[in-house]
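FAQ: What does a multi-protein file look like?

Like this. Sequence, then tokens, then the next protein.
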Amino acid sequence: MNSPRCCCREPAAAEELRPPSPLRRFRHATAWIVPGAIVVAMPKCPMCVAGYLALATGVGISFSTAAYLRLLVLALCLAALAFLAARRVAALLSKRSWLQEPSGARKTKPPPSPIPPASLVD
């Protein structure tokens, strides 16, 4: 039976040392590259967006629709980049290597005492 992973338990040595697979590394890299490349390559002029869309799909759109489409694509790309950055910061903070005590020891609760407190003894 697999028990759920406790946040207080140290990770197993195999989990800690296992390198990510090539597919996972590729997926993480493209997750950052694709939205960034779209933001960089997005034309400033909404008319250019309408022209590129017409060339790529054969669908013509109005100037105002192209302007809204451009803003929507930029907002989605920036939101994706912000999400990726927040996820990366959360992963770094979850390690808390720089927040631990200088000795590196974790604070844990002491084991329960086998002797009951004096207030509970008759």
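And here is the next protein:
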Amino acid sequence: MHYIVGNAYLLCLQCLWAPLAFGLGATFLVQWELKQQGLMFSNIDVPAIEDDQLSFLAIVVIMMVDALLYFVATWYIEGVYPGRYGVAKPWYFPFMPSYWYGKKYAHANCGWLSRSVATDVNLQEDEQELLGGLASYICTLCIASYHSDAQNWVRNARKE
């Protein structure tokens, strides 16, 4: 396997494809063996060819970056397309605070939700009290986005 010595930045960009980085690392290893020196920690950051700018250490770092990128891509795709028996998350799930901090964070700020629903749908005082007690349940059901149904929902919940 022979590669063109020269533009290290272009080669690093191409090495984001893991098989290419692995092949290039194997090439560097073989070149050190052909010099009859071998690859050791003392020369891991020295290029095998005199005119080259890349060393075996650079390839190892690039492969670690590859692993991190592949991990993030797998995590995201598995979240959005979980397979046959999973529950798909929305495409923007990494930007949701409830994903990172859990449901406690999502329900900790529900007080403003119950007040805004109560004022938006013009509920009576006793219905507002009921709504305040059910704030976390209302937050879970996303009643705030259905203002026209909120008043009927609260009255039916009160009857039960």
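Q: Is there any per-entry metadata?
A: Some entries carry free-text notes. For the entry above: The chain has a mean pLDDT of 74.
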